[in-house]
Amino acid sequence: MTYVITSACVDVKHKACAAECPVDCIYEGDRTMYINAQECVDCGACKLLCEVDAIFYEDDLPETERAFLADNAAFFAEILPGRDAALGTPGGAESVGPVGVDTPMVAALPHQQV
Fold first, then answer.
1. Is 95 helix (H, G, I), strand (E, B) or coil?
2. How far is CA 86 from CA 76, 101, 114, in A?
3. Do residues 40 and 32 touch, judged by C-beta distance below 8 A?
4. Residue 104 is assigned to a structural domain of this protein
5. Pairing between β-strand 26-28 and β-strand 33-35 as defined by DSSP bridges
6. Whole-model pTM?
7. DSSP per-residue codes, 41-87
8. Are 45 and 3 in contact (CB under 8 A)?
9. How far is it, in rounded angstroms, from Cα 74 to Cα 34?
10. pLDDT in tens, 17-46
11. Can you tell me the distance from the alpha carbon of 114 to that of 92, in angstroms, rounded to the nearest whole number?
12. How many domains is the chain partitioned into structurally?
């Protein structure tokens, strides 16, 4: 099980969640943040600090946000546009820095006013 960042984060990216994460498992895409399920220790610190209530425990995802579970996994498992390889499990977001791209699902979402 893992935590998942949902649509409320798209085009917002406050990043307080990433700063609080004790295992550095929250990665920055172009328009949103993504939690690496392989690195997450399910502590919930990110959820407590999310200013837009975009983070849910997998079992608590609203039905309208369920697609973000598979999409979050795809961010790490698939080769994203403009990249040569899948991100995988690099062992910490800080060493990777902003990835600069999103999954096709997030990239296709309409832009939100922030």
1. helix
2. 6, 12, 30
3. no
4. yes
5. antiparallel
6. 0.95
7. ----HHHHH-TT--EEEGGG--GGGTHHHHHHHHHHHSPPTT-SS--
8. no
9. 10
10. 999 999 999 999 999 999 999 999 999 999
11. 28
12. 1
Place of tokens 């392989």: 38
113 is a domain residue? no
Name residues whose C-beta falls within 8 Å of residue 31's C-beta, 6 or more positions apart in sequence. 10, 11, 13, 102, 106, 107, 109, 111
Query: Which domain CATH number covers 39?
Result: 3.30.70.20
The CA distance from 11 to 87, in Å, is: 21
Per-residue confidence (pLDDT) for residue 12, from 0 to 100: 94
pLDDT in tens, 69-105: 999 999 999 999 888 999 999 999 999 999 999 999 9
